[in-house]
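sorry for the late reply, my laptop died twice this morning and i had to redo everyting from scratch. anyway the thing you sent over, i finally got around to it. pasting the sequence first so we're on the same page, its 318 residues, then the predicted structure underneath. double check i copied it right bc i was rushing
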Amino acid sequence: MGPWRAFNWTLVSAPFLLVGWVAFSARVLSFETEVERADPPGFDRAIEAWAPFVREARNVGSDATVESRIERLLMVYATMPDAPRPVPPTQLGRCINTDLRRPLYIAATAVARETNAVLRSLIEQQQFHRVPDLVWGLTCLVQSLRQSDVVALIEANRHLRELQQIVEHALPHFGNDQVAELSRRFIWLEERRKPATVICRTDLTLFNSIVGRSGSDDTVAALGVLRSALREAKRGAGVESFREQAAELKPGPLRDRVQGLLIAWQVVLNQERENRELAMRAIRLVRTEEILRKGLDPAEVPNQGIPAAILTDFAAPR
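ok and here's the structure:
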């Protein structure tokens, strides 16, 4: 699947996002003729951390045998940042496949496409011993980028759904050590989850950099609506109710932009909730298999041995 085809899939598969993004682009981005860049703190370090991955990804797909393709993929995954390192936009309304982050998006898309192709090949050949490492690598990749923007988050969820199907099919064929290690890794990644509301916070920062200097009553009111919505989002609540407040703003491009942002933020919150549900489902799946192989009854193991910190309700404050 090519980058643009992947983007088209995103729009088709997420009607809510489509409505919001069309409104956001057509009505909101026209607010200024030229939008200034306002690099978020740490942007340069984040983009530089992905440079080795982008370089190595250029050779993905060039190997002849399945084994050599696997080794290439594992080498590429080894170049990823040690910790999740999302790369936020520098312009309001831009997404990872249309702005200066596009090389990273193309590299990640190529690696994901090749990983899926290799996984399908391994399963067809009933060769399951290399599957866990590839599943883990792709999981880390999409989860590391998911906070970059709403498109990256939707793409992450799409890949997680596909990977979950692969794990369900292949799990009985994994060795005991592989099951235990995959369980440990999934839990380790979830324990380090950072809230996707950072996407909303970046939007607000960029929005403020564009309009905040005017100091007009309309601008102050618009920023007040968005700041209140972000506070609620951080507490796990939705932001749909704030669209009513936005509707009370003075008609014009400023109000359109605020409404567009609120639509996009609600998509982020919905997609993040799905992301966590997918992550927890994968953890429970692998942990259940691990417990069964120890000759125990999963129902008799408190919380299946999953740390309480990641079992807290998604709506709880972070």
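The radius of gyration is 21 Å.
thats about all i looked at so far, will dig more tmrw
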